[in-house]
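Appendix C reproduces, verbatim, an entry submitted by the partner laboratory led by Prof. M.T., so that reviewers can inspect both the input and the predicted structure.
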Amino acid sequence: MTAKQRSADVQIDEDIDFATLIQNKQLLQGMEQSGYERPSPIQLQAIPLGRLGVDLIAQAKSGTGKTVVFGVISLEGINLSLKVPQVMIVAPTREIAIQIRDVLRALGQYMDGFRCEAFIGGLSVKGDTLKLHHCQVIIGTPGRLMALLDEQKINTKAIKLLVMDEADRLMSDSFLPQIRYIHKKLPNSKQCVAFSATFTDELLDSLRPFMRSPQTVRLTDAVPTLEEVRQYFSKVSVKTESTDVLAPLKIYRAKFEAAAALLSKIPFYQCMIFVNSFPRAMELSKWLTEMGWRSAHISASLDQAKRITVMEQMRDFKLRVLVCSDLIARGVDIDRVNLVVNVDFPPEIETYLHRVGRTGRFGTSGIAVNLIGPNDQPFLDMLHDRGIALQPLPENVSYGAFQKELTKDEQQVLQSHQSKRVSKESKPLKFTKGSSQKRSYPVKTTDPHAHKEQKMRKEATEEKPKPKKQKEDTETAAKSYHAPSQDTTQTAWQSHPHQPYAYPAPSYPPLQPFFPSPFLLPRSNRSSHVQTKHFIPPDLYF
């Protein structure tokens, strides 16, 4: 860990640096260049065991440096003069595999002849064959690694280390057959190490057949979340009736508005918003973009090239907000994320812990806010039973809470994002020629009702003859229209002493209703949907 002040999750009492644990000078130089100076507790305990060659099962909280553990074990053990695969690292998602590759490349940047590559689905198999040339560390997802092994594309004779990252996920029914196949194809003498933030006794029983007398390092305490991540809840009130078929949609819209309001209320560098379905992620991202936020969405429904592009934009600080599914709830580390918002609760508590772990990385501070709808109380009770107590979101969140320091270039990028959003928020609305009443205050040009208002004013001023009744209706509508007044001359963000991290309260564009096609419904429901002409909320079929 770096020398900056961190939480107790990554602090050790001993005066030990990485030079005590690592002998390779080129690797130490890469560690120092990457900002690692002192080991975290999991690194201090697991690295020596891994270097001894024993099988290892390690558990620690998200964001405490598990990737560095198996990165060091991998790089210390390879023979750089041998240009064949010697280490295989298996990750459950493509994003985690790419992230591991980038971390190992950074650690081994001064090791002459070192090469590692990622092999993931969604990309060309022919390209993977070329990447295997002179590759010493193979990182990939189970499906692609299994395919390459099945086609005998990988020379496995020299592989002496198998790493399973996010092992609790790899031991699930969807991945377990592939992991068994991969394990069987590798030499019997290999070392096996497994890492995750969450383990159960059943999971340990599932891992033991892959190992020989494994050593276990478990650092997770009774409270499995990071100490410097403050967890809050904010209730979203929606007036609905039990017979209201549109109730899920109303809740869905209210949570969108609440999530957007949080972005203006809470200071942050980058934010991750979690939802449970691809349509929601897409709609929320589009809406936030119209409001001026630099946002994008990511889920398993996107093709691989777009997913890679979105993650690169987020890491390069070209995006402020990422709306995502649980695809990247695990293992993905984006250094500047200090705000996580749960619009939807996940199906299980373990996934919630992984979501919250996307902030507060490496002992820094972060905030997680959970939006509570009318049907979310059972999940709150489950969290309480696990010893995770959420606090009500205060009116004023502390602006000095974040220990993460931005560089000078990052500060300039942040200010650029803020200025672009403010200018987009205050862009004046253009009026048609002949308008009798012009607004003197800023209005969002993305207002979907603006063109209707202009059309109404134009019809009210046109001299062409109209039926008497239609003319009266038009005049009545024009007279009854009152432009909204701008009475908030001094808003909270303008008077706040920490203006660089505060934002103007947005004027929310109305959410567009999402009318699903009958063909998105199950076949049994299509005819009734067409006959009754009911609006079916997205929650009922996604």
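The first strand starts at residue 56 and ends at 59. Additional entries are available on request from the coordinating office.
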